[in-house]
């Protein structure tokens, strides 16, 4: 019997903080619905106190999505928590995510405070949020650089105050995998009452370690991971959802499963990339253009003899099923529509589809084969109002 790992997606909060990636409410609803289809357990829909737009997006996502828990971020401030609760009023399942920095540099430079005061502040915030909702997640910002003994005291106190999930962010992406794994292990072994809460990872990728750190967190007992589609997020980004989901699928013997329908990964990746104007690097694991392309002669020869020689995953398992429908100047509207859908762009309006199709025919006449990037470029201007 496998153990369950909960997927907390923060594409619409930590991911959307990136300059140039901002989405309007309609676009956020589209992404949230796609995340629901993908099978994520929790959608962090925004930071409601930060702007009326963010508040409104959390309200509308709460109405549009039924299955996943909707989570709203707050600082450890009563006003933030009041506003977060208000924004979640239509959510079927709601969570407030509150917290503050616990590393010495945050305590000293951000708060001009001391460890005892910060601990009391954390407890008060959790108790305050608990008046509104049962499901309260606490984050210890910069936990990656927080002294383990003090971190354990804070985590123990917030669990006693009612936190149901405790988030251990490596906010600056500083940790090495072994250190991050040991931090989670330390908490598992030294926090009284840890079994009453779920430990969550939240790793940033400044040293390219986000996925490795998250994985070490899982191995040492974390049962929720905070991730984004394509690994987007502040600076070098967050842990990529698709990498964690596929690591666990490829290594079934670990006995840890998610609810992710991996065949929706590619579609979701393309949707987020095109709506956020954030291209995916070609060699990005799982979803990059070259992730399943074999170009050297030796590899091609091997793959033609048996795909297992150089492929550890079936591209179909991540929703890349495409070689069946290749676009050329002879392709019809249905094929174009199908390929756009695989790429996360749904065209419901026949007139719009026709406009894109006419542009496609002119373009395809000049090119032997039209790629996914080509059709996304062709559809770009005309799909804006569909999103
Ligand atoms: O990286 C971080 O510490 C965060 C918290 C606000 C959860 O994003
Ligand atoms: Zn973060």
Automatic annotation (TrEMBL):
Protein family according to the UniProt entry: Belongs to the alpha-IPM synthase/homocitrate synthase family. LeuA type 1 subfamily.
Cellular component annotations (GO), alphabetically ordered: cytoplasm
Occurrences of domain Pyruvate carboxyltransferase (ranges): 5-266
Purpose: Catalyzes the condensation of the acetyl group of acetyl-CoA with 3-methyl-2-oxobutanoate (2-ketoisovalerate) to form 3-carboxy-3-hydroxy-4-methylpentanoate (2-isopropylmalate).
Pathway where this protein functions: Amino-acid biosynthesis; L-leucine biosynthesis; L-leucine from 3-methyl-2-oxobutanoate: step 1/4
Residues given in the record as Mn(2+) binding sites: 14, 202, 204, 238
Protein known as: 2-isopropylmalate synthase
Record keywords, A-Z: Amino-acid biosynthesis, Branched-chain amino acid biosynthesis, Cytoplasm, Leucine biosynthesis, Manganese, Metal-binding, Transferase
E.C. code: 2.3.3.13
Position of the signal peptide: none
Protein's GO biological process: L-leucine biosynthetic process
Cofactor(s) needed by this chain: Mn(2+)
Subunit and partners: Homodimer.
Organism taxonomic ancestry: Bacteria, Pseudomonadati, Bacteroidota, Bacteroidia, Bacteroidales
GO MF term list: 2-isopropylmalate synthase activity; acetyl-CoA C-acetyltransferase activity; manganese ion binding
Substrates-to-products reaction catalysed: 3-methyl-2-oxobutanoate + acetyl-CoA + H2O = (2S)-2-isopropylmalate + CoA + H(+)
Record-annotated membrane-spanning stretches: none
Organism name: Prevotella lacticifex
């Amino acid at each position: 019997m496998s153990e369950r790992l909960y997927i907390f997606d923060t594409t619409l909060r930590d991911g959307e903080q990136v300059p140039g990636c901002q989405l309007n409410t309609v676009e956020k609803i589209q992404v949230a619905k796609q995340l629901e289809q993908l099978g994520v357990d929790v959608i962090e829909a925004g930071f409601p106190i930060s702007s009326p737009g963010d508040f409104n997006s959390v309200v509308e996502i709460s109405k549009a999505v039924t299955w996943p828990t909707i989570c709203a971020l707050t600082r450890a401030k009563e006003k933030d928590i009041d506003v977060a609760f208000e924004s979640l009023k239509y959510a079927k399942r709601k969570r407030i995510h509150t917290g503050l920095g616990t590393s010495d540099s945050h305590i000293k430079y951000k708060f001009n405070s001391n460890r005892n005061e910060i601990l009391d502040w954390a407890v008060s915030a959790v108790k305050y949020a608990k008046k509104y909702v049962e499901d309260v997640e606490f984050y210890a910002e910069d936990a990656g650089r927080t002294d383990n003994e003090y971190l354990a005291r804070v985590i123990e106190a917030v669990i006693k105050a009612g936190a149901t999930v405790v988030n251990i962010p490596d906010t600056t992406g500083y940790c090495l995998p072994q250190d991050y794994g040991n931090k989670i292990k330390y908490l598992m072994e030294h926090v009284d009452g840890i079994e009453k809460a779920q430990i969550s990872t939240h790793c940033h990728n400044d040293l390219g370690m986000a996925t490795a750190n998250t994985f070490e967190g899982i191995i040492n007992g974390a049962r929720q991971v905070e991730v984004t589609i394509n690994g987007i997020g502040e600076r070098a980004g967050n842990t990529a959802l698709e990498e964690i989901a596929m690591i666990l699928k490829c290594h079934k013997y670990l006995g840890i499963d998610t609810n992710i329908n991996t065949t929706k990964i590619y579609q979701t990746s393309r949707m987020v990339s095109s709506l956020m104007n954030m291209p995916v690097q070609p060699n990005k694991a799982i979803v990059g253009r070259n992730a399943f392309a074999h170009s050297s002669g030796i590899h091609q020869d091997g793959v033609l003899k048996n795909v297992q020689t150089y492929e550890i995953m079936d591209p179909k398992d991540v929703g890349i099923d495409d070689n069946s429908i290749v676009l050329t100047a002879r392709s019809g509207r249905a094929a174009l529509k199908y390929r756009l859908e695989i790429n996360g762009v749904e065209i419901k309006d026949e007139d719009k589809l026709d406009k894109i199709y006419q542009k496609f025919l002119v373009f395809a006449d000049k090119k032997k084969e039209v790629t996914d990037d080509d059709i996304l470029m062709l559809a770009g201007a005309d799909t804006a109002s569909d999103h």
